[in-house]
């Protein structure tokens, strides 16, 4: 077929709107450099009428947070019979829910830090102080507190002193009524991108993440100079292989499609532990997927153009 007309969805009314707009702009320009016609659209009340009138050939979802990762917009595109890049709606829901994803990873025998999931009313009913004492006694310190879903580390806090736990829970509960309380594992933080091609999923070189603050939070992710990245990661070939195997296993186990990014930590024993997975990785100038693509000797626009063509072919085969 001739070069397709692609709709890039960016924006959305979430805490990550600005990041999404930056991702959408970057991938749009990358696709245009490869001759693809691109229209950037927001996920608003004008979207469905515009789709019905203009009938784009495929969609690229550059929405972050719940709008782009919890399966809702994927369901809309499926109902509209519009091919799109990325994981289908049902498996997006699995990956979006951090405890569910970690539970599936754990049940498969893959390493992930010990964790508990707690609802806001548990603290109200049983008393915050008593619950915090139990958590510290069981998990030790430091502890990572984060919303049970969400992206860009919004609401995530590393707690090194039990006195700071109440404030950490307030921060996490600002983004939802359920939190994940996870053992904080010090070590080397890695991000491993998986991209599919005609031969199946492949893991790209891992990116090592070294935030100046010690925690890869929202500010460290999206503020230039706040984090140093190493591509490829400064790890042994054995650990790089472990990281690739873990990311590929997570991609397959959670039923992900086209691309994904697994966040992991290499502990003191050299074991690569799963932290979480992202079905709509950022594409900004400080994002990890484009770094991995470049280190692999690939070009971002070409990778996404090929994925668009695969998505269109996949949809044609399913409806043919």
UniProtKB/TrEMBL annotation:
Its EC number is 6.3.2.4. Binds 2 magnesium or manganese ions per subunit. SUPFAM superfamilies: Glutathione synthetase ATP-binding domain-like, PreATP-grasp domain. PROSITE patterns: ATP_GRASP, DALA_DALA_LIGASE_1. Pathway: Cell wall biogenesis; peptidoglycan biosynthesis. It holds the Pfam family Dala_Dala_lig_C. It is found in: Cytoplasm. Mg(2+) 2 binds at residues 276, 278. Its cofactor is Mg(2+); Mn(2+). Its main location: cytoplasm. GO terms for cellular component: cytoplasm. Residues 102-309 form the ATP-grasp domain. The keyword Iron does not apply. Mg(2+) 1 binds at residues 263, 276. The active site is at residues 16, 152, 287. GO terms for biological process: cell wall organization; peptidoglycan biosynthetic process; regulation of cell shape. Cell wall formation. Belongs to the D-alanine--D-alanine ligase family. PANTHER family: D-ALANINE--D-ALANINE LIGASE, D-ALANINE--D-ALANINE LIGASE B. This is D-alanine--D-alanine ligase. The lineage of its organism: Bacteria, Bacillati, Actinomycetota, Actinomycetes, Nakamurellales. The gene is ddl.
């Amino acid at each position: 077929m001739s070069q397709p007309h692609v709709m890039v969805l960016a924006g959305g009314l979430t805490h990550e709107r600005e990041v999404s707009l930056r991702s959408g702009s970057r991938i749009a320009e990358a696709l245009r450099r490869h001759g693809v016609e691109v229209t950037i659209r927001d996920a608003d009340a004008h979207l469905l009428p515009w789709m019905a009138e203009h009938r784009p050939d495929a969609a690229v979802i550059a929405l972050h947070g719940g709008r782009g990762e919890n399966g809702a917009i994927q369901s809309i595109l499926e109902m509209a019979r519009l091919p799109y890049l990325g994981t289908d709606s049902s498996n997006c829901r699995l990956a979006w829910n951090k405890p569910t994803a970690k539970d599936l990873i754990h049940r498969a025998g893959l390493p992930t830090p010990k964790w508990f999931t707690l609802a806001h009313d548990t603290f109200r009913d049983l008393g915050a102080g008593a619950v915090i004492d139990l958590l510290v006694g069981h998990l030790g310190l430091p502890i990572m507190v984060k919303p049970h879903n969400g992206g860009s580390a919004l609401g995530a806090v590393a707690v090194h002193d039990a006195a700071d736990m109440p404030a950490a829970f307030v921060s996490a509960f600002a983004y939802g009524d359920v939190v994940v309380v996870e053992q904080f594992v010090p070590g080397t933080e890695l991000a491993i991108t998986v991209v599919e091609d005609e031969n199946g999923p492949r893991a790209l070189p891992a990116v090592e993440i070294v935030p100046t603050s010690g925690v890869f939070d929202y500010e460290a992710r999206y503020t230039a100079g706040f984090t140093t990245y190493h591509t490829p990661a400064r790890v042994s070939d054995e650990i790089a292989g472990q990281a690739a195997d873990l990311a590929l296993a997570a991609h397959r186990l959670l039923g992900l499609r086209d691309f994904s990014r697994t966040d992991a930590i290499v502990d003191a024993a050299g074991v690569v532990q799963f932290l979480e997975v992202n079905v709509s990785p950022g594409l900004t100038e400080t994002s990890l997927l484009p770094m991995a693509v470049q280190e692999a000797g690939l070009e971002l626009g070409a990778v996404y153009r090929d994925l668009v063509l695969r998505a269109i072919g996949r949809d044609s085969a399913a409806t043919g």
